Amino acid sequence: MGLFRARQRWEPGPDDSMVLSLTEVELALLQNLPDDMRTVLLTSDDDPARKRLFPRAYLDPTADAAETEWRDAVYPDLVDQRFDALDVVGATLTRAVVAGRDREWREITLAADEVQAWLAVLNDVRLVLGIRLGVSDDEPPELPDDDPGAAAWEFYDWLTYLQGSLVETLLGDFDESGLFDESGLFDDLDD
Prior knowledge:
By secondary structure, the chain is an alpha+beta fold. It has one domain (about 10-175). Helix content is about 55%, strand content about 10%. It has helices spanning about 25-30, 35-40, 50-55, 65-95, 110-135, 150-175, 180-185, and strands at about 10, 20-25, 95-100, 105-110. A four-stranded antiparallel β-sheet has the order 1-2-4-3.
C-alpha cells in the first residue's frame, strides 16, 4: 500500500471504547467521506450506488405495491440512520489527537455507539466505491501506479482493511469471552 501504512489500527480502550490510529494523510482522506456520502444519499434513486445502499425489499417485480408500502414505512428511517452515522463519524474525525513517539499518528477514541457508526459508514463507503469501481468477485485489476484509477482501488483496499480489522478486533473481544468455544454453534464448521 503506497499511501497507507501498515499498523494495528484498532485497539480496545477503557469502558468499551475503541482507539483508532491513522496517519495524517489517512485522516485527511477520511474527513472528506461524510460529505461525499451525503451527496450520494441526496442523489437520484436511479444512481446505481444509491440503489446498492437501498436495495429493493421485494425482488418480485410484480410486488410493486408491497415495495412502495415498505419504502413509505421504512425508507425515511434508513436514510436518517445513515445521515446520523455520517454526523457521528464526521464529529469523531475532528477529535483526532497527535500520538506516537514520532508524532506522525493521529488517534481517535470512540465510544461504543460511535464504533457502530464507523462500521455502518465504512460499509456504506465501500459499497458505493465498489459500485463506482465495478468491483466484482473477480480479482481486482493490476493497475500501474500512474493509472488514474489506481489510487481509488488502493483506497478501496485500505477501507476494506480498516473495516475488516475493526470487525476482527470486535470479534476478538467476543471470542475471548469463550462464547464460541462453549456454545457449540460452530462445531459443524470443522467437518
